[in-house]
Design brief:
The complex is a heterotrimer of chains A (327), B (666) and C (143). Chain A is an alpha/beta fold. Chain A has 12 helices and 9 strands. With 143 residues, chain C is α/β, with parallel strands linked by helices. The chains are: A alpha/beta (327), B alpha/beta (666), C alpha/beta (143). Chains in contact: A-B, A-C, B-C. The interface between B and C is large, with 53 and 47 residues. The complex binds flavin-adenine dinucleotide and iron/sulfur cluster (3 copies).
Amino acid sequence: MPDFDKLRALAKETISRDDIKYLIGWRQGTYGYRTSPHFVRIPEDADQLIFSPLCSSNLATYLALAEKRPVPRGSQPDTRKVAILVKGCDSRAVVQQLVEQGIKREAVYVIGCPCEGVVDLRKLEEKYPHTLDRVGARWENGNVSLDLPSGNAVFPREEIVAGKCLTCRYPNPVIADVTLGENVEVSGSTAFEDINRFEVKSAQERWTFWRDKFNSCIRCYACRNVCPMCYCAECILDKQNPAWIQRSVNISENTAFQLARAFHLAGRCIECGECERVCPVEIPLSYLNRKLVKEVTEQFAFTPGVDPEAKPLLVGYRPNDKGDFIL
Amino acid sequence: MSSKPKIGVYICHCGINIAKTVDVEELTKYAVKLPNVRVASDYSYMCSEPGQLMIREDIRKNGLNRVVVASCSPRMHELTFRKALVEAGLNPYYLEIANIREHCSWVHKDKQEATAKAKKLLQAAVAKVRFLEPLQEKEVDVGAAALVIGGGIAGIQASLDIANAGFKIYLVEKTPSIGGRMSQLDKTFPTLDCSACILTPKMVDAASHPNITLLTYSQVESITGYVGNFQVKVRKKARYVDFNKCTGCGLCAEECLLADRVKSEFNMGIGNRSAIYLPFPQAVPAKYSIDPHSCLFLTRGKCGKAPKCVEACPAGAVDFEQKDEIVEFKTGTVIVATGFDVFDAARKPEYGYSDYDNVLTGLEMERLISSSGPTGGKLVLGKGDGEYVPKEIAFIKCVGSRDKSTGNEYCSRVCCMYTAKLAHLVKDKLPEANVRIYYMDVRAFGKGFEEFYDRVRREGVRYIRGNPSEIFKRNGKLVIMVEDTLTGKPLEDEVDMVVLGVGLEPRRDAREVIDLLRLSQSSDRFFLEAHPKLAPVDTAIEGVYLAGCAQGPKDIPDTVAQAKGAASSALVLLSSGKVKVQAQISWVNEPNCRGCGYCVEICPYTAIELVLVNLMGHQVNVARVNGVLCKGCGACVAGCLSGSVQQKSFMDSQILPQIAALGGKL
Amino acid sequence: MSENFEPNVVAFLCNWCSYAGADLAGTSRIEYPSNLNVIRVMCSGRVNPMFVVNALQQGADGVLVSGCHPGDCHYMEGNFLARRRVALMRELLNFVGVDERRFNMSWVSASEGAKWRDVVKGVVDNLHEVGAFTEFPRKKIDW
Ligand SMILES: Cc1cc2nc3c(=O)[nH]c(=O)nc-3n(C[C@H](O)[C@H](O)[C@H](O)COP(=O)(O)OP(=O)(O)OC[C@H]3O[C@@H](n4cnc5c(N)ncnc54)[C@H](O)[C@@H]3O)c2cc1C
Ligand code: SF4
Ligand code: SF4
Ligand code: SF4
């Protein structure tokens, strides 16, 4: 685990470089367990940087989505690099954005942070509701140690980290210009037991489950907005001509929306779990994504966001792709 | 939408073909009530002149701007009705056809059911037609010249045909001479014409043709543009011999310090040449070149006191200062005729090709047996004192063909016949020799092939069915281990010489050409044709054609036939001078495009590229469709996540209403 | 489900093989159920899998996408691209509990009029078993 001094020193050094525009990292949030994205523009800003088990947000979202302000006539666009801190899953988003040409390699400076897992705030919230004082956290011998107002508490990893971290196959950044700390052990697998368990249920049971979930969706689109892979200028969900999905919030449009969102991530989802984390009504979105991750892995032996030179999954085919469903 | 839709609906009875099962009157009544429909009529034969007149008059009288015809399949009469629209002054793409014959009246019996279905189909057509947009059918000019890559028999033939039709040809050949593999052959099956005798005149014709610019010892560096407008850059490699001064006398080669010491590629390494050389006596152009890899002066900067060749040349043609030269030109079409390589026999180590001098490939045998070859046509092995005449000679077929272990599952199509030919030539030279051919099958499919095979057998060549497993040396003889699969008996055959019937493979440098044109390969790695049956000389890239073995193994007659086919395809474009551009193609809504390049990868016709555009001072990528190359399949549209690329007449905004109309209740 | 339920099927056919095959069924007067209506596209590669979701929303009980046999695509690869997309969308729909028999794909060539009938019959027969699509249809369909 990198101590903050090292991190901050590196960030200072980085931001002092002529070819760096700004650095995106995390800092402690205003209250409780929250952390916030932090934009470092001058060396002093780096003093607030942290990297802890509470830094769950995927900062890669800010790369492709960075606003392109009009360049005043006569001046040149600022083409300096953006430096970014990435965990393993975040780094896959960077790679997938490179594959999809959302960003250019020379426009990013990637600082890799090997990660032992981030805390699922919902689990923590359950144990210690309404914590307002700021809480610090660190990894300690495979456990997560929290400095709570009530004192220090240590939780085994399995008990407290997000579901995505328990199955994570890429805790170490797959792309980095510089890495902070040592690589960690990989424990995730492609067993997809959770998905398999759900698949054996009857169609009726499956639909009932999802119907209830989709029914509760308020179509805030937080899941889409946070997704590092969703950065179209105009999303088809917002289009009115043609209107693929109508605006009304009901089971028909909600389901169509959920299917569109999941399908658009087929072969692209890098399993950072951000959609699920931000959903205000707790729809298990990564479950839907993971179903497709499973198919993409098993049918096409494809893993998005690991190889910047790879071709995207759905722009190609193999003549012997599975086709046993075809009449 | 350009103007508020005013739709005319025309329902055809098709005699009784439709009217018998679909209640056309009810359908007409239903049609009038559909949104934006101004008039609806039914008629016995809409495709007849009176039927079309009805449409034309309605368009004029009622100011219709959209037409729906409910009739037979659009594959039958879409063009007919489009013409009718044009005649009435309406854009032909404001038409939609509801197929109520093939898809309805002919396949259903129950009148009620069929009528209900016809209503749905009609409703969907009306739903779509409202959103159709006018399209333009454009043409682009085709530059009156062709580039032919590869100067084998395929390239030569294609060049001659096109040049004879009056168009300019740039024939680019990598080696110092045109002629290709055919120039290396001795005689050709099944007629046993001497290869040089039939090929040389064609080579000379090509070189002297006023319409053909021959660029030998040259390589295409880049091809940009698209059908009709290819810009080509060719590198003419330095020959170090002034092309215009050289008379081809050959005095230089005799004096070269390395005379007879450099392996001759043409003779498959059996014979030698000088560092300054003509690949073979009949080479065209008959101009010498210096091989920069062996020439002492070029590799070491020093050759004796002064290079002998310079001294020897009476014309003063040797010029070590010569540099590569870049030639640029434009052509309307491209023919790829880059031929093949023979299978590398070393990849089947069990046959001992790398270990034993008396194991040869078929192509080496061609050189050995040729009267213009290194031995003057004497069939002898060994060198100097060790020279001997083989008596027991075996051929093995299908080496590197029909063989999964080498990755080549295909049949090379010429080895059956060339081994028969070579066996015949051996018998001709050495009547006493015992010749046998090990085979899996004999495929004598071509004209005169079976007769030739028969003749060779009657001459005493033995065919033994079996696929040898190993060749090794014992007491100075080669021993072939094989099971005769007809008798089931294992054999150990002792011979003096083995000729491997090596197959044809894609050229090992094929990638160069693929990268130039973004050609595709089929699973056998030869270049992929646009359609195996119906477009065997075309490629996915409009205006680019394939000829000869570059597309797959072929004998000379098939190569020539295909070359003529490719020439004729190129001539269709060249002689009309125009190429029609599809109207129902894709285009990109650039402000919405995220520049991901998915569509670029998807398009099988390389019709889309990413271009940099200025977005408020930033350089951003967006996709752009080349309307000349797009064939209008729509595959890119379905793959675009942002819906930015759309296909005209098949836009999302046109198909979704169709879906709704079919899904909704009547 | 009700005795006289008749499924409504929306089918996307490529122009060159499947549409022509369906035309051939017509010229050969091969009879088949009338529950399926065709939308012609130039290539099965044009079919956006979201069309299928959209069709289910808009009143279809089942969908069929049909293209040329592998290797026969008029545009060389469109059907292969379609196959991947369809495979994934089928899995996704199935996962949320939509019976996979609602989403079918077939290869029908221009010479397979009889196969076209078999495909249509098969799809329609299956849908008779599966029943009307009630999971997430739109209340009101506008076009
Ligand atoms: C041992 C053997 C015996 C045979 N005997 C017979 C026979 O008796 N009868 C018969 O009908 N057929 C025979 N064949 C088949 C015959 O050789 C071929 O059909 C014929 O040579 C094919 O001609 P081509 O022009 O397609 O290819 P090639 O002859 O290979 O010519 C291709 C030419 O393109 C040039 N080239 C390649 N790449 C490039 C590039 N990137 N840029 C520029 N130029 C390039 C090459 O240098 C070459 O000159 C035999 C084949 C073999 C191997
Ligand atoms: S975040 Fe949750 S509620 Fe909001 S749109 Fe996504 S799934 Fe629906
Ligand atoms: S797939 Fe769509 S978004 Fe991507 S480059 Fe092509 S048109 Fe643009
Ligand atoms: S419609 Fe087909 S041919 Fe045209 S650009 Fe798109 S993928 Fe290429």
